Amino acid sequence: MLRTAFSVSVKTVDLRRGTMPWWELYFNELYLRMLETILTPDRTAQEVAGALGVLDLKPGVRILDLCCGQGRHAVPLAQAGYRMTGLDRSSYLLGKGQHAAQEAGVEVQWVRGDMRWLPWQSQFDPITCHLAMTLTWVGEGAKESLTHSVRQYTTPELAGMLRRAGLLPIAYYGDFDGSPFELYSKRLIILAQKPRDVRKERMGEK
Question: Cβ distance 152 to 131 under 8 Å?
Fold first, then answer.
């Protein structure tokens, strides 16, 4: 049995507006050391195989690995023949990814950026997020389970759907109390309206 002991110095990071977000300090060399026994090559191989099985990708498509970290998914996907771009906030992890790609003899485009503001519109094929959950009810010696899978959409994806449907997003809320949509909002509510057709309005006036 492999046992790993950690001695961690905890630094409290204030998450309130105007202070440094926790992720600016979190993803560093210590992060990799602490997770090296969890994020094993076998686990990575299983995750890559699972993603390829779900997405059913054609060879050579362009894939964006969002929050790619040290490239543990982007590099093996590039080895499998896909054109990979990895985006992450951590310069340290991106450097590790670049080194891993060089060691593997594959090409990956590494981009430092924030996943909330992507610099692309439609350059990539799949970029999806699914949430799967199983609820289990245990009682009176019986056990019943329900499993559901929910496709999660980003704010730009939803706004794009509305525009394609002929609606113009005009406001984004984080809850029914009218609070603005932010990173930690519990929900996303988009207010959209049908754009005015000035030409038809003028014809109606005549």
Answer: yes
* CA distances to 31, 36, 52 from 70, in Å: 11, 12, 19
Domain extents in the chain: 129-205
- Helices in the chain by DSSP H: which ranges? 23-26, 29-35, 41-55, 74-79, 91-104, 155-164, 198-205
Is pLDDT above 50 for 29?
yes
Residues 6 or more apart from 147 whose CB is under 8 A from it? 132, 133, 134, 135
Helices first, then strands: H and E counts in the chain: 7, 7
- To the question of pTM greater than 0.70 for the whole model, the response is no
Closest-CA residue to 91 (of 11, 28, 35):
28
